[in-house]
Here is the input.
Amino acid sequence: LRIKLKIRLLRLTILKTSYNILTLLLKLITNFLNVIKKKVRSNKD
Here is the structure.
């Protein structure tokens, strides 16, 4: 029983960390895209 609980906890923590990493990556990508868009706009001017 204890081992199963530990495995469940491990899975939960892994899920949480992976989710956090994914959200961070998404934020970075969106920021990067925004910067590129701004550069393109400034170049057009």
